[in-house]
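Sequence, please.
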C-alpha cells in the first residue's frame, strides 16, 4: 500500500481524479492507484507551505510519473520530490518535460530540505523519454540510484552540488553523460559529480540525448547558401527541424549572455523624503507660541512595492518588459517590435478550479479578453466563493511621501488633493489619517513551459540577429503572473492649527500602529476628506462620514464593495521572471529604498501660567520653592532656532528671579519675562525645593515637562509631602487659562 502526498495532502481514493481541484495544483493531474501512475498533463504543482514537499512518495514498490507536455514543480523551502520508494519519470509525448525549481536554501528547516529531488538509500529513479530540468538553489539531484534512458537532463545545485551523494554511479542508455566531469567517491561511500578542477559541480550540467542521423530533408546548406530567415547552413544536408533547433540554440545562447543590472530595479528616489521641513515656525497671530520640529528618521531598504502608475497597460500575463528603471517608476517599457508566439494562461483561485485559455496573442487587448473568458467560467461556477481576504488598516501619515508609499502610488497621486505639509509662513501643519482596505480578487498565471527554451517565446521567423538588434544588450523579463484586486482608501486631512499634538507620543509613521492617534483624530474636526479608489465599486464619501468608530468605517468599506463581472479590479502585484541571463526563470522584483520621517511640531509657549497646589504639603513655618530651568529661543529669518539664554540654579539671582516662586499656601503664578517672539524651549526642568523655618533649601524632586504638559501654556502643579521630610510632585495637568 503506502501513501502518496501532493503538496502535503495525502491522496485518498476519491481524490485520485480530482487533484486539479487542489489549491496547489493546476493543469491536469491524476493518479491511478491500480497502476501506481501519477499523470502530469501540462501541470504545475506549487507547495505553499514551508513544511511539505510537492510530491512525497511512500507507495510500496514505487510510482511512475507520466509526463504529457510541459510540467513544473515549485516547492517552498522544502524538497520538490521526496522518494522513500522507487520512482520512474517517463514522457509519453515528444515534448514531455518536467521542471523542478527550488529557489530556496534554508538550513534552519533541515540540511537536506532544499534538494530538488531527494531519494532515501537504495531508492532507484529512472528518467526515460523526456526532458528533466532541475534548478536548485542549494542542491539538485540527491541520493539514490539513477538510470537515464533516452532523455535530456539539465541540473543545477547552486551551493552543494548538481548531482551529489548518489548510491552509485548513474547508468546512461541512449544519452551521453555530462561532458568534462567525473564521478568521485566520497568518504561515506556515496558518489558526487566533480569538474576538471576537482571541485563538486554546482552550476548547470547536462545529460544529452543521443543524436541520430538527421539528414533526411531535401534542404541543402552550403557555403553561400542562406535560408530566408538568415540562417546559413554548413556543408551537407540540414533538415527543417535542424534549422529550427539551431535557431533556438542561437537565440538561447545569446540571451544567456545578457545579464541584468540589479540596481536598475532599485528605486531610491520615489519614496525618499528629501523635503526641507522648517525647524521652527511661529504663531503669526500674537507670537505667544512657537512650534519646534520633531523629526524622527525611519529608513527602509529594498522594500517590495507595486506602484500604481500610468504605464500599467504594459503589465499583463505574457508581457515582455525591459529590465530597467522604468519598471520601478510605474511605467515599464515593453519589448514591442519583435513578433511573439502564442501563449496560454490560467486562473489561480481559492475555489472553483483553474480555468484556462490557450492560443492567445500576447497583447493587452487579447489577454484581457482571455481573462474575461476565464472570469466568466469562474463566476458561473457555483463552487466559487468570494475572493481573497480583505486587509483593512488605519495609519497616520505626517509626510506626503509616507502616504504615497502606503498606497503604492506615484507622484501623480491619482487626482487626490489631500495634503501632508508643514508651512513656513504660519503654525499650520496638516496630516492625513488613511483608512485603507486591500483585497486580492484573483491571479492569472502564464503557463510555465518556456524556461528550458526561452526562444519559444518568439515567433518562428525571429532570429538572434533580429532580437539582438532590438535588445541592444538590455535584459528582458516576462510577466508570469498578475494578481488583480482593489485598494480603497478613505483619507481625512487634519490641521494642527485647530489642536496641538505631540508627535513623540501620538503620531505614528508608515508601517506602525496608529492606535495612539485614533482618539485624537476621531475627536478633532478635519479640514478635508478624499476617497482613493482603485479597482472597487464606487462608494460615496457621505456613506463613510457618519461612521463614529474605525470598526464601523472598515465594515462599511468592506460591505459596499463587491467583486463581479463588471468589476474585476486592477493590478495589485505581479511576478517578473528573467528571460535573459544564465538561469531563465529567475524572479526579479521592483524594490525601493529611502528615508522617511515622522513629522510633528511641539508647541512652545512664551510664558507659563501655573496654579501651584500645596494643600497636601505640611509646610508649617517653612517654604516650598517651585523653579523652572529653561532654555529660551528666538526664530531667525531662515526659520532656525536661536537659543539666546539658559537659566538654571547656577544662573544669577536676577536671571532666576522670573522663573521661581516660593509658597506657603496655594497660589497662581506666571513664570517668565520673555518678550513677544521669544519662547521657552521644549522639555524645561521643573524643580521642587523646600526648607524648614530658618533652614536652607534642599532639593526634593524634579521632572522634565512634556510637550503635552506645555502645549496650552497653563499647568496645574499639585505637590504633596512635608518640608520636614521631602516634597514631591503629585500631579501635573495642563488646562486652558
Amino acid at each position: 500500500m503506502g501513501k502518496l502526498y501532493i503538496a502535503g495532502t495525502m491522496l485518498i481514493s476519491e481524490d485520485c481524479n480530482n487533484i486539479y481541484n487542489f489549491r496547489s495544483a493546476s493543469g491536469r493531474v491524476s493518479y491511478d492507484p491500480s497502476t501506481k501512475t501519477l499523470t502530469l498533463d501540462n501541470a504545475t504543482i506549487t507547495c505553499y507551505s514551508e513544511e511539505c514537499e510537492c510530491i512525497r512518495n511512500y507507495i510500496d514498490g514505487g510510482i511512475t510519473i507520466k509526463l504529457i507536455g510541459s510540467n513544473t514543480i515549485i516547492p517552498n523551502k522544502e524538497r520538490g520530490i521526496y522518494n522513500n520508494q522507487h520512482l520512474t519519470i517517463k514522457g509519453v509525448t515528444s515534448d514531455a518535460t518536467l521542471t523542478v525549481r527550488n529557489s530556496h536554501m534554508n538550513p534552519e528547516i533541515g540540511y537536506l530540505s532544499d534538494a530538488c529531488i531527494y531519494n532515501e538509500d537504495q531508492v532507484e529513479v529512472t528518467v526515460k523519454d523526456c526532458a528533466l530540468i532541475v534548478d536548485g538553489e542549494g542542491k539538485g539531484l540527491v541520493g539514490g540510484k539513477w538510470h537515464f534512458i533516452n532523455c535530456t537532463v539539465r541540473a543545477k545545485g547552486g551551493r552543494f552540488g548538481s548531482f551529489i551523494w548518489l548510491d552509485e554511479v548513474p547508468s546512461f542508455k541512449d544519452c551521453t553523460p555530462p561532458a568534462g566531469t567525473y564521478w568521485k567517491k566520497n568518504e561515506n561511500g556515496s558518489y558526487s559529480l566533480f569538474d576538471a578542477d576537482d571541485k563538486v559541480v554546482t552550476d548547470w550540467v547536462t545529460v544529452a540525448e543521443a543524436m541520430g542521423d538527421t539528414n533526411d530533408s531535401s534542404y541543402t546548406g552550403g557555403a553561400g547558401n542562406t535560408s530566408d530567415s538568415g540562417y546559413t547552413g554548413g556543408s551537407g544536408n540540414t533538415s527543417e527541424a535542424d534549422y529550427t533547433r539551431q535557431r533556438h540554440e542561437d537565440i538561447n545562447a545569446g540571451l544567456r549572455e545578457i545579464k541584468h543590472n540589479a540596481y536598475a530595479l532599485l528605486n531610491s528616489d520615489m519614496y525618499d523624503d528629501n523635503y526641507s521641513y522648517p525647524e521652527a515656525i511661529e504663531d503669526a497671530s500674537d507670537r505667544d507660541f512657537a512650534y519646534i520640529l520633531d523629526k524622527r528618521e525611519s529608513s527602509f531598504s529594498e522594500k517590495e512595492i507595486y506602484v500604481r502608475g500610468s504605464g500599467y497597460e504594459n503589465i499583463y500575463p505574457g508581457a515582455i518588459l525591459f529590465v530597467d528603471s522604468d519598471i520601478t517608476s510605474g511605467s515599464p517599457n515593453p519589448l514591442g517590435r519583435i513578433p511573439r508566439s502564442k501563449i496560454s494562461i490560467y486562473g489561480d483561485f481559492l475555489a472553483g478550479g483553474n480555468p484556462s485559455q490557450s492560443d492567445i496573442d500576447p497583447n493587452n487587448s487579447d489577454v484581457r479578453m482571455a481573462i474575461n473568458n476565464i472570469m466568466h467560467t469562474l463566476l458561473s461556477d457555483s463552487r466559487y466563493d468570494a475572493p481573497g481576504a480583505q486587509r483593512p488598516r488605519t495609519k497616520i501619515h505626517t509626510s506626503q511621501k509616507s502616504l504615497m508609499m502606503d498606497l503604492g502610488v506615484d507622484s501623480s497621486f491619482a487626482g487626490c488633493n489631500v495634503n501632508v505639509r508643514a508651512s513656513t509662513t504660519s503654525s499650520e501643519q496638516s496630516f492625513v489619517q488613511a483608512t485603507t482596505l486591500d483585497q486580492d480578487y484573483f491571479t492569472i498565471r502564464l503557463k510555465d513551459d518556456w524556461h528550458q527554451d526561452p526562444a519559444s517565446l518568439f515567433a518562428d521567423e525571429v532570429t538572434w540577429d533580429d532580437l539582438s538588434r532590438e535588445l541592444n544588450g538590455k535584459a528582458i523579463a516576462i510577466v508570469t503572473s498578475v494578481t488583480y484586486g482593489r485598494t480603497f482608501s478613505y483619507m481625512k486631512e487634519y490641521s494642527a492649527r485647530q489642536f496641538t499634538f505631540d508627535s513623540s507620543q501620538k503620531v505614528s509613521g508608515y508601517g506602525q500602529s496608529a492606535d495612539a492617534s485614533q482618539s485624537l483624530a476621531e475627536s478633532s474636526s478635519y479640514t478635508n476628506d478624499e476617497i482613493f479608489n482603485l479597482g472597487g465599486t464606487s462608494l460615496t464619501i457621505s456613506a463613510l462620514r457618519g461612521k463614529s468608530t474605525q470598526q464601523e468605517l472598515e465594515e462599511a468599506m468592506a460591505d459596499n464593495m463587491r467583486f463581479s463581472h463588471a468589476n474585476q479590479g486592477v493590478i495589485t502585484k505581479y511576478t517578473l521572471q528573467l528571460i535573459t541571463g544564465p538561469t531563465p526563470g529567475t524572479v526579479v522584483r521592483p524594490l525601493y529604498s529611502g528615508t522617511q520621517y515622522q513629522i510633528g511640531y511641539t508647541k512652545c509657549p512664551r510664558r507659563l501660567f501655573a496654579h501651584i497646589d500645596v494643600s497636601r504639603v505640611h509646610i508649617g513655618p517653612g517654604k516650598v520653592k517651585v523653579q523652572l530651568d529653561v532654555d529660551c529661543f528666538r526664530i531667525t529669518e531662515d526659520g532656525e532656532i536661536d537659543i539666546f539664554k539658559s537659566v538654571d540654579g547656577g544662573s544669577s539671582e536676577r536671571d532666576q528671579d522670573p522663573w521661581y516662586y516660593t509658597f506657603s499656601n496655594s497660589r497662581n503664578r506666571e513664570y517668565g519675562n520673555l518678550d513677544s517672539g521669544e519662547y521657552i524651549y521644549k522639555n524645561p526642568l521643573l524643580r521642587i525645593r523646600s526648607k524648614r523655618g530658618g533652614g536652607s533649601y534642599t532639593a526634593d524632586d524634579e521632572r522634565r515637562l512634556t510637550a503635552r504638559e506645555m502645549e496650552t501654556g497653563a499647568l496645574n502643579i499639585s505637590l504633596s509631602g512635608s518640608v520636614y521630610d521631602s516634597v514631591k510632585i503629585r500631579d501635573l495637568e495642563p488646562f486652558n487659562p
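The chain has three domains: 4-209, 303-599, 606-734.
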